[in-house]
Amino acid sequence: MKFKLISSFTFLALFLSTLSQAQVKQVNISRVDIMANLPQPLQIIDWKAMALKFDNTVYDFNAKGRYWPMVWMDSTGKNFKEPTLGMYTAIGDVRQGLPHNKGMFHEALANMGAVLGATLVGIDKSKQQDLNYAGMLRNYFNKDTGWDIMMNNTAPEVALLGGGYGRDWWYDIYPNVLFYAVYDKYPSEPGFEMMARRIAEKFYKADSILNGNYKYSYFDYGQMKPMSTHICAQPDAAAGHAYVLYSAYKKFGDPRYLKGAISAMKALESEKINPTYELLMPFGAYVAARMNAEQGTNFDIAKMLNWTFDGTAVCREGWGFLVGNWNGFDISGTVGSTVDHGGYAFLMNTFDAAWPLVAMVRYKQEYADAIGKWMLNAVNASRLFYPQYMPVEHQTIPDLADVTKGVIAYEGFAKASTFDTLYQTLKAPVAQGDGPKWVPGQNPEVSQFSVYGSGHVGIFGSIVKETEVKGILGLDLLATDFFKQDAYPTHLFYNPYPAPKNISFKVAQTKSDVYDLVAQRYVARNVSKAVNITIPALKSIVLVSIPAQGKMQVQNKCLTINGVIVDYNYK
């Protein structure tokens, strides 16, 4: 690896001709191995720009056009006697909007995801248009029912209209995962600390009651007892419990929450078959890596990553990460069912998998190559959810795409239409959505366009940035690493080409040293602006921008600079 300083005010402090020495051995993920090294056709869109445009367009109460605006004010005052925002789940959903169901039917998955996504790309959602959209999320905290956790709806009156609520466990847990991420960004928001503590208490007590057995359809957090219904058991709920409890431990320091997180992780790890259900398993892999690094646990990260990717789930048959090239389109890396109609990928699941998996690499850099390659595939393929990037011959309703205003995507795409009689002549990949099936005969065709999934775009927007080399992405490992300890800017770069490639790496401080987590050594010293770096073929680097001439210490396998951990696995 060669380095050449760009700025005339910097000088070459370290020259390395190879990375063959002291390299951290990379661990493969078999599902990623069969993805394309360089997916085709290759087109990386500006995800941050998409996130900013989504926020500016969707949060417009005066938006013009059929089915618009996408938001309204719900004044029913559930849980807190204050108005909250309503947001459509899908365009034109007949159950939603101010005239329907008292304006009460809206989902936390949409509302929280949109607030979090916008926040991640730099928008302060606590003071926008003279409204506090972050604070309005309080109404999803179901204290009126005694559950005292975040739920996907504000009240049970509308719960059976769709979106879980006391019958489908992941729907009850994930709003709390989302809330904790929002809380990290808005720690002073009135009521948030109270809600975060109560959620942690509920999850800790629930884990104690479950006592290592998460094989239930859901948990009644009001009666505090596990429940079994026609919906199959979801043991990966333990991953969601662990994520929330560990976040609570990092925030509040209560050792009970750490105990609960470890207990939940042990329950997850003890499963004999793949327990993946919807989207919680990647959070299990992240918590495993982070607690191993920070707490000295020894959870099996590889096991949880294989469960995440493989598509070998039993309850939710085939749920995992898709792999393939459909009629010239690489669709690998997207997330959903690997078996439904030959494969059915979903936008929200793909966005949200990046949240824990990219952040995980800082705690376990052995997965830099695998996650870098997966993200390139996922980021490239995800543009195909949007009608402006999918060829019209692969869309169910291309003639209605104008209604999206360029910011709302199809809910997913499949290898073949999942509608029994409609769109059967379309060839893969088929961009579509399930909205018309939710209210058969009433929901319009445009309900295939997913507002709730599109709102999570800020996850990609905060993590992904293109370099000057097409196909080499800069992935921000800190963007979605919530409640983290102090850390220096850390970025993953993966080279998908069969030859070395040069990139320019901009440093964070005026005078910076650059450390590579994969090589486990400094690769440049006293850089004032940027440094040219060569990435070996089909390999990754993870660069940390550190204040120059910092004090270096090594203790318990952790390399610290000026007291800040840089490398959790230093050898």
TrEMBL record:
Q: Name the keywords, alphabetized.
A: Signal
For this UniProt entry, which residues form the secretion signal? 1-22
Q: Kindly indicate whether the keyword Signal belongs to this entry.
A: yes
Q: What is this protein called?
A: D-glucuronyl C5-epimerase C-terminal domain-containing protein
